[in-house]
Amino acid sequence: MTAKLKWLFALGFALVFIAGVATGVFAGAWRAKHVHVVKHHGPHPRMAERMIERFERELDLTPEQLALTRPIVEETARKLSAIREETGRRVSATLEESHQQIAPHLSPAQQEQLKEMKSRHRHILKMKRKHRGERRERRTARWRQEAGEPALEASRPEEP
């Protein structure tokens, strides 16, 4: 093998290695995002209904038991939703407080960059909420179709 050919093989190997690393990074980031969303999305709009269906199916609840347990499950879903909302507010307040404490230690250019970072973060959250709403609407339409209910054009599930 000539020296030029060896260099081409080494370069090809390096490019394949870099492509593999990049693929791993992107796949890992996607997976981490997916796991985070699945674990931290809060009470599902139909969480109470699904819990009731599961209890009814697996515990073979009588109609009387179902009538007694439904309000408990619905209240649990409301409480979980409130906990999630409160946690979100506390996280936001804590982050804002830390930014206010950090800002005096930064140069004016860094302070401006911090403001831009916060603006980008708010934009990302806004887009996630928008896409979450769109996914929720598609999911609700699918549930309605599966249940044999008429599809609503602008259907939104009731929040617990």
Kindly provide the radius of gyration, computed on alpha-carbon positions and rounded to a whole number of angstroms. 25 Å
Q: What's the end-to-end separation, in Å?
A: 70 Å
> What is the oligomeric state here?
single chain
- Note the beta-strand portion: under 5%
Please, how many helices? 4
The portion of residues assigned to helices is: over 70%
**Silhouette:** flat
Structure notes:
The protein is mostly helical. The chain has a domain at 1-40. 82% of the residues lie in helices and 0% in strands. It is built from four helices and no strands. It has helices spanning 3-40, 47-59, 63-102, 108-147. The longest helix has 40 residues, at 63-102. The protein is flat, with a radius of gyration of 25 Å. The mean pLDDT is 81.
Layout of strands and helices, then pairs:
Blueprint: H1 3-40, H2 47-59, H3 63-102, H4 108-147
